[in-house]
Write a structure and sequence with these properties.
Largest sheet: 3 strands, antiparallel
Structural class: mainly alpha
Radius of gyration: 22 Å
Shape: globular
Number of domains: 1
Strand content: 5-15%
Amino acid sequence: MICCVRITVEVSCADTLRSWGSACLVEEGGSAETWGLHDKAVGACGGRAVSFMVGLCWVVLSVVVSGAALANGTVIGTPGDRPASEARVRAVASDEQAPATKPAVKQTESAVGAIHIDCRPLLPKGQYVDVFEAQLNLILNEYWRENGDWKADMMNDATAFAPRLLFEIYARTGNEVLYDRAIATCRYQMRLTRDVLAGKGHFDVNSVSGVNCLLASARYAKGEHERAASRDLLQSFLNVLGGALLFDVVPPSMPNLDECKSIGMPLVAATALGLYQVHNETSLLVMARKLIAKHEREFLDHETGLFGGKHFGSWNSAMGLAAYAEAYTVTRDSSYLQKANALIKSLRRLHGTFAGVFFHDVSLDTKPNWGANLSTAMIYIEALWTLYESTGDEAYSSAAGRGIEFVVEEFTLSRAYPEGIHDQWFGNRKRVVPFFAHDIMVKDHEKRVSPSYCLGCNFNMLDRIWDYNNDVGAAGRN
């Protein structure tokens, strides 16, 4: 879930005293209700502000330490028990339990060591098998890098979406190559996070999504030590960025915080709720609730019913819907479901008929250009599917299905450019690719599909097609 505007954070280690989460989470009326700091008036909180900043340093150190084992090459494998509410988590077979045969995997003769996945047995509904198989096999054979950093990752978010899908397919096929690449991707993201938080680099919003791969390793890792390292690293990171967004206490190196809060708050909230389902830590739930509430206070336009913000088009509302969907899934608080439904209604009412809920102003700075953006569409689809899994209401699954159909019909580059595109990731060589374009622009009622693509966004859409074909429904989430 990533956008193209950057939010920069530089954090360094210092002496540690106590955990930021425990320092800020206080008891009020016998329940863990607040974070102990007002969202705006941090400077008036005296000692609490000092505790917060000291806590940041502790979190950074814990990030570096807890991620060391995985980032330096610790083997990861089979998950332990998972929460019953997490239907999207399917057990990955252990070495002893791996399928004796691998009917869905075969080596092709086109290249030594090339991988070919027969996807038809993996997609029971048989929907979009051809595009899924064409994309997956091309990605595995031409876009993999041994360090875990996938080629053509325009939005720097392949680390967010690749591991979960590869783990899922591994569970069904026993193909160790897929498993190893999922682990290598997680390790790559861990190294990035560790280096940034150690003061060796910059962090951007795209990388915020990247840390979602730690949810996959926390679910699928072999052994509690590896799972705990993933959980701790992710929670520490969320504490740092969530605190910055909540309290507006940030290092000087985050000058564009105001531009990024509109998507940063719901994004961190949704990730925290995902981790809460894996790691039942109360502070994660409290943080998510606070971030969602602040997002509403600062960015919800009550006249339009949509979320505003700078430079993101309907990204703001897409992320808001995702946060509401996850919040309802975790808390069963009906107010979140009501807010999600109201947001969907506003989106449909105000975004016209070109693509229903996905009608999208790609850039608010270029008013004549209207169209659709793949990143936005995939977030809506995932949020709608989460609502379906949580409620069992097929109206959500139907809407998600129409979203997938829209992307396949309108964004597929091989349909828009049957003679091929000049692929920027392969020296502008002209070639036909089965990927989904990054944008559709519409001007004066004329549609133009952009001849570019992002691997991370395509991984995300493969994830959406996977879920749609392997529908567990509400029964699997409850």
